[in-house]
Amino acid sequence: MYRNLKDLLRLTWPLLAAMMAGRLFGIVDVAMVGSLGTEGIAGLSLGLTYYNLFYYIVVFAFLQSNLIHFAKYSSPEKGASLRNYISHEIILGILLSLLGLLLLGPTLWGLRFLTDSPQVLYHSRRYLLIRTIGVLPMFLMAMYSKLLIAVERNQLLPVFTVISLAFNVFFNWIFIYGNLGFRSLGVLGAGLASVLSMIIHSAILIWYFKYVTRNFQAGTKPFTFSPAILKERFELSFTIMQSRLFEQGSWTVFVSIISGISPLALSIHEICMRVKDFILMLSGPVRDVTMSQVSKKIEKKQEGAAKQSCITGAVFLTVVMGTLGMVMIFFPEPFLRLFTDTAEVIEMGKGLFLIMGLYQIADALFISFQGGLLGMADVKFVRDINILSGWLFMVPLVLLFIHVFGWGVYGAWAAFALTIVIRAVIFAVRFLQRSWIPEAPPAAEA
């Protein structure tokens, strides 16, 4: 347990630090575009919203699933297979970039229905255009970060992220405001700065990955294209994409129901979501490391070690999130006052913080064992449970608690908390029962 915990902390803290540094990108863009006025910020926000929609639903599904495969080929003796697999991932990144460009035309046209301001529409279209062109460097940046997690050489990720952030600030200063002889591009300049900084970030990661894997088996065969590898990747990623789409759909319904209660209910819901996002920022790296470690150890036929890695992650995350939950239960007001001074909102927020605090342990188990199941490539089971629990349990329960029992926003969040509890129990039982491991056909040879 101690060794697993040590490995978990060693691999998790760089991801957390890099993620926190990465959050500054959006803050910097908004701050530097802010001098252009409200229409500039609105255009940036609208364009970024639709870029993130494509990234988090489509691209992220492929990036999450590639960590499962990278971990399988992460040992030095499988270096040739890993490099061949990377080549297929690059082809996949190119295909996703082309998909983004294919969807760009209809998206740019559809933005006209989301704003009445010609200036906001102008800024959002230009920003979305340049960011979509930059999907490939973004994909490569995320892909090589996952590779470094798989080979357990991710300690410098925060440093590389800070370097990229510095370039982003510099390029923003040049292209937004028109310095060093360049013309001012406004919101378009912010998008261009992001793309250029990602290109530099990708180049650094590629160089560093080649450096840390220089002793990996080189292999003698040239790159061999395998349709079976791409087919396997698409099937796995499409399953994750389905899960994300349906989860996002049930969550959209959840928020829509809350918005129908009152503006006050929606405002306190948003405050709770910001706190929840912070907690997810802490738990996400643990899930990714767990996924990688389980996949790697299963590939080595070390099923007992894989099980122990997941349990260690679950125990660690339970302690961390359980502690945060206790703080939210007993000291909610300081958190709430970070967002508002309105007495009515603070009073209502105390009740929601109680609910949030109580389900943190269940959320920790849900996230950890979901990572373990994904590491075992049991993605269809994860998809089915998340979809069914969201649409057949959470949404009806929200409606029951609000419209029949009259519990308002408390009822909505209570239904959500119960959904997390159910998912946590099912995923934990599924992972801990060894009989669930499928007799899957061997992965396509890289």
UniProtKB/TrEMBL annotation:
<feature type="transmembrane region" description="Helical">
    <location>
        <begin position="310"/>
        <end position="331"/>
    </location>
</feature>
<feature type="transmembrane region" description="Helical">
    <location>
        <begin position="90"/>
        <end position="109"/>
    </location>
</feature>
<keyword id="KW-0813">Transport</keyword>
<feature type="transmembrane region" description="Helical">
    <location>
        <begin position="188"/>
        <end position="209"/>
    </location>
</feature>
<dbReference type="GO" id="GO:0006811">
    <property type="term" value="P:monoatomic ion transport"/>
</dbReference>
<dbReference type="Pfam" id="PF01554">
    <property type="entry name" value="MatE"/>
</dbReference>
<feature type="transmembrane region" description="Helical">
    <location>
        <begin position="351"/>
        <end position="373"/>
    </location>
</feature>
<keyword id="KW-0472">Membrane</keyword>
<dbReference type="InterPro" id="IPR002528">
    <property type="entry name" value="MATE_fam"/>
</dbReference>
<dbReference type="GO" id="GO:0015297">
    <property type="term" value="F:antiporter activity"/>
</dbReference>
<feature type="transmembrane region" description="Helical">
    <location>
        <begin position="129"/>
        <end position="149"/>
    </location>
</feature>
<feature type="transmembrane region" description="Helical">
    <location>
        <begin position="12"/>
        <end position="33"/>
    </location>
</feature>
<keyword id="KW-0406">Ion transport</keyword>
<keyword id="KW-1003">Cell membrane</keyword>
<dbReference type="InterPro" id="IPR048279">
    <property type="entry name" value="MdtK-like"/>
</dbReference>
<keyword id="KW-1133">Transmembrane helix</keyword>
<feature type="transmembrane region" description="Helical">
    <location>
        <begin position="385"/>
        <end position="406"/>
    </location>
</feature>
<dbReference type="GO" id="GO:0042910">
    <property type="term" value="F:xenobiotic transmembrane transporter activity"/>
</dbReference>
<keyword id="KW-0050">Antiport</keyword>
<protein>
    <recommendedName>
        <fullName>Multidrug-efflux transporter</fullName>
    </recommendedName>
</protein>
<feature type="transmembrane region" description="Helical">
    <location>
        <begin position="412"/>
        <end position="432"/>
    </location>
</feature>
<feature type="transmembrane region" description="Helical">
    <location>
        <begin position="156"/>
        <end position="176"/>
    </location>
</feature>
<dbReference type="GO" id="GO:0005886">
    <property type="term" value="C:plasma membrane"/>
</dbReference>
<keyword id="KW-0812">Transmembrane</keyword>
<dbReference type="InterPro" id="IPR050222">
    <property type="entry name" value="MATE_MdtK"/>
</dbReference>
